[in-house]
Design goal:
Chain A: InterPro entries: THDP-binding, Transketo_C/PFOR_II, Transketolase-like_Pyr-bd, Transketolase_C. Chain A: Its cofactor is thiamine diphosphate. Chain A: It is found in: Mitochondrion matrix. The complex is a heterodimer. By secondary structure, chain A is an alpha/beta fold. Helices cover 38% and strands 18% of the residues of chain A. A seven-stranded mixed sheet of chain A has the order 3-2-4-5-7-6-12, sandwiched between helices. A five-stranded mixed sheet of chain A has the order 9-11-10-13-14, sandwiched between helices. A two-stranded antiparallel ribbon of chain A has the order 1-8. In chain A, strand 6, helix 9 and strand 7 form a beta-alpha-beta unit. In chain A, helix 5 runs parallel beside helix 6 and helix 12 crosses helix 13. Chain B is α/β, with parallel strands linked by helices. Chain B has a single domain, classed as Thiamin diphosphate (ThDP)-binding fold, Pyr/PP domains (Rossmann fold, 3-Layer(aba) Sandwich), CATH 3.40.50.970. In chain B, 42% of the residues lie in helices and 8% in strands. Chain B contains 14 helices and seven strands. A five-stranded parallel sheet of chain B has the order 1-2-3-7-6, sandwiched between helices. Classes of the chains: A alpha/beta, B alpha/beta. At the A-B interface, helix 14 of A face helix 14 of B.
Amino acid sequence: MAMISKDPVQACTATTLRQFDSSKKMAMALRKFGKDGISIWRRGFSSSAGLESSSTRDATPVNLFTAINQALHIALDTDPRSYVFGEDVSFGGVFRCTTGLAEQFGRQRVFNTPLCEQGIAGFAIGLAAMGNRAIAEIQFADYIFPAFDQLVNEAAKFRYRSGNEFNCGGLTIRSPYGAVGHGGHYHSQSPEAFFCHVPGLKVVIPRSPYQAKGLLLASIRDPNPVVFFEPKWLYRLAVEEVPDADYMLPLSQAEVVREGKDITLVGWGAQLSILEQACEDAEKEGISCELIDLRTLIPWDKETVEASVSKTGRLLVSHEAPVTGGFGAEISASIIERCFLRLEAPVARVCGLDTPFPLVYEPFYMPTKNKILDAIKSTVNY
Amino acid sequence: MRRSRTVTHAPDGEFGPDLAEVFGPRQSDGGPELVQLLTPEGERVRHPEFDREFSAEELRGFYRDMVLTRRIDTESTALQRHGELGIWAQLLGQEAAQIGSGRALRPQDFAFPTYREHGVAWCRGLDPLKLLGLFRGVDQGSWDAQEHHFGNYTIVIGAQTLHATGYAMGVQRDGAVGTGDPDRDAAVIAYFGDGASSQGDVNEAFIFAASYNAPVVFFCQNNQWAISEPIERQTRIPLYQRALGFGFPGVRVDGNDVMATYAVTQAALQRAREGSGPTFVEAYTYRMGAHTTTDDPTRYRLSDDVENWKLKDPIARLEAYLRRNGLVEDGFTDHVAAEAAELGERLRAGCKQLADPEPLSVFDHVYADLPPELAEQRDGYAAYLASFEGAQA
């Protein structure tokens, strides 16, 4: 199974060489990345098996919005043709992710936009199409829908419809997604599945501060348009050691966060921490769970999940978005194709209810640890 | 400058010359050109086109409405701070814009609010506890929109302006425009803010309204801020001037002047009811509070600005006028203050008594009828809840 190899620098560099353009800037970034050893610290938030510290570097315990802020600082610092913009980003943003950027890099490069998501996306595509890195923020994923046409019909198809003569690969859309306890109908949605249905886009979702910084930098530098959903619940809540340095984590590579042998659990974003709690409870009842963070939803790492399910024979997928038509359906279908004869039980999906995201009903709507635990047990006992 | 089409005079000739003519930009002596009938100091001023006489009863009514609306707002903000509401969108400073426009509505007119029009809700007869139910999250925003002719709060910025335009087109097709019957002719009012004016939906609503001559008043409360973004980020010209580009009149009114807001909105609504189509009313005001209770405006705006606008307070100027003209010598203001205190108490008590709904009702009203698959999901969930030790039957 795939894990972060013992030499994290090598693993990431190999992946980045596959993925990135060999432009001068990328080569510089890679050299810088290669020169600086990075250490993978034991994550306080989400444990990973089989990790080692390589050379010791400066790292600080920070929360998610600070990790993202660091990534944005580095992106702006390493590429003078990168821009950060969106509603309210100038004063630091409603979630503080863009704090200090306007002051440091100037308001030509970090700026507020008019209140228009379709405009933000279209504008970002244009900026990216001339070779810039356009890092656009949609204030809440719930508001991304006016931008959907631009992302689906334009961003995703730029390269394809031009025979690779033209692209907007420098486009990254960042947006907070997911439940936050009090977001209600319009500050809680998980729209990732809509974008996973669009060839030409990448969808990336980090589970923690360390993951977020590395995945965001990788997304910004990836030569394809990326939609990067940030779990807003974790902006302040999740704290872990994050290297101060510039580093990237590979896209389209899932991570086995916990090893086990009885059942494979797959999720992303904030749901990872819920799944982890369920793993721990299941362990007490003698069930050994293997937990995978998908990290990139499209193109997704089928090999890692397949390898895991080949070992365990059981799969459970969990996401906040409603179960019907959610991305869990794609994972289930693909894994059944690959692992049919190995499966001991149907693929379980523990997801949001098939209702709009509710108000005070939120705790009932959510795919909680107990619901997951129930499903683990019934799958194992099938 | 192209004139919009000539309108007939209002039935009672109250509004003087061609209304279309008067909505164009006017020269001012310094400040933003806007229609004003009551200065910040509480002096009555005349306006050549939009003036009207107000009875003592009307003015005292405005005062009471604004004081009570402000009380609803401050009480709800406090309730949020105490954890009784999940969030509250404050309207502090915008009372005149909402009461002035809200009171100009006839019962058959329909209002489409954003999420901040608690003053308009008040005018439409909505019990403020219904608003609290939404912000507390125990009630999915459901008051009967038809009963109050006041739509449900719309969180997605600007979306309601398209709804308002479609509704207005429906009113046209129902033959409730231009009949001359004051009880039948209806208009629609769409509320939105300065930030919303940048949204595609809002501009599309303008296009549709103009193209179909829809009986809709686009009422923009320009409170100068979209969270942290000042108005200058949204527009290069005064917002009301955009309307001309779309083909209908626009007028800017002092949004802190309840008399002017009432007069201008009434004129615009009458235009719509008569069949003369849409009007853009920009109520120039200021968001004295935060965007919502999750926002901290000290991070992006100067307190000097806020202090300056305190001098333009909508309630203070009306109170000054009423006192100066002997219209509240009967202890009226004390009476209103007592009423406000009572209202505050009722809201506090009522809020805490708002019941949590039954868990299984989360499945209600997704569709008109419950699809079998969803019924199955609900039954499965009911069984899951019942499986817990100590679960109630």
